[in-house]
Amino acid sequence: MFKLGMSLVFGVISALIIVLTGLSSEARLTTVLLRSLIGFLLTGALVWLVTLILETKDIVGFDKNLELIEEMEKEEPKSPEEYEAEDAAAAAEAETQSAEEEQEHEQAEFKPLGSEDLRHMEAPSQN
Questions:
Q1: How many angstroms separate the CA atoms of 39 and 16, rounded?
Q2: Rounded to an integer, what distance in angstroms lies between the CA atom of residue 62 and that of residue 68?
Q3: Where are the annotated segments for Disordered (predicted)?
Q4: At what angle do helices 2-24 and 29-56 cross, to 10 degrees?
Q5: What band does 39 get if pLDDT is binned at 50, 70 and 90?
Q6: Which own/partner pairs from 53-57 qualify as long-range (CB within 8 Å, at least 24 positions apart)?
């Protein structure tokens, strides 16, 4: 559906541009209308073909969002017990991670930086 809509929009835009340029060049009305019809059909077909190729090569998926919505509707909703179990597991994992981080901080010894630990640079001699 998206491919058809996109090709129609581009076709209408190209037809309007052809009509405007044809009328500004003072061409006959039948010539302008025929050219705009041909431009509409060719542009629509070209845009439809390009979108079809892009979708088959999986470069761009225009209609994939619609498929994802349908998949989400098919999933069964979770019960409150399942949500509580997931929350409890996440909380337990967070507690173990924080305990490990505290142990690592306790094991690391802090030594303040003293003047003997600094490297002193000598000024270059001027010749």
A1: 9
A2: 12
A3: 72-127
A4: 150
A5: very high
A6: 55/3
Closest CA to 64 of 76, 55, 52: 55
Does the residue 99 lie in any domain?
A: no
CA 95, CA 91: separation in Å to the nearest integer? 6
Show Cβ contacts of residue 24 under 8 Å, excluding neighbours closer than 6 positions: none
Q: Is the pTM of this model over 0.70?
A: no
Residue 120 in 3-state DSSP?
Answer: coil
Q: Can you give the pLDDT at residue 114?
A: 79
Based on the structure, what is the number of domains in the chain?
1
**What is the SS3 assignment for 17?**
helix
Q: State yes or no: pLDDT of 82 exceeds 70.
A: yes
Domain that holds residue 43: 2-74
Stretch 18-29: mean pLDDT, rounded? 91
